[in-house]
């Protein structure tokens, strides 16, 4: 079971409180986690990744084990502690402005 932490605006859209727990088929990668998330919560399609290219939206970042995974390959394996549910996979809204 993989735990996903969403930013508040996406939790409201998905109508969830707290972490989301997902069962992911096959290896745990960013792509497989986001595919499972969008399958379970179709209203999130297009909010985290572009619906056509599946590239991460510009103002969102992915973190796990205190590391920024945003620029990693979407098919790179996630750390074992994330795949086992010990540590969460975080989707974080970036802050921009000046």
Name a few traits of the molecule.
alpha+beta, 98 residues, globular, five-stranded mixed β-sheet, 22% helix
Uncertain stretches: none
Count helical runs.
3
Biggest sheet, strands in spatial order?
2-1-5-3-4
Look at the structure and give the mean pLDDT. Answer: 94
Return the string of H and E elements.
EHEHEEHE
Query: Share of helix among residues?
Result: 10-25%
Estimate the global geometry from the Cα principal axes: globular
Largest sheet: 5 strands, mixed
| Terminus-to-terminus distance | 39 Å
Structural class: alpha+beta
Number of strands: 5
Q: Which range does the strand content fall in? A: 15-25%
Please compute the radius of gyration using only Cα atoms.
12 Å
Please tell me about this protein's structure.
The mean pLDDT is 94. It contains 3 helices and 5 strands, in the order E-H-E-H-E-E-H-E. 22% of the residues lie in helices and 19% in strands. A 5-stranded mixed sheet has the order 2-1-5-3-4, with helices on one face. With 98 residues, it is of the alpha+beta class.
Write the layout of secondary structure elements.
Blueprint: E1 2-5, H1 8-14, E2 20-22, H2 30-40, E3 60-64, E4 67-68, H3 80-83, E5 89-93
Parallel strand pairs: 1-5
Antiparallel strand pairs: 1-2, 3-4, 3-5
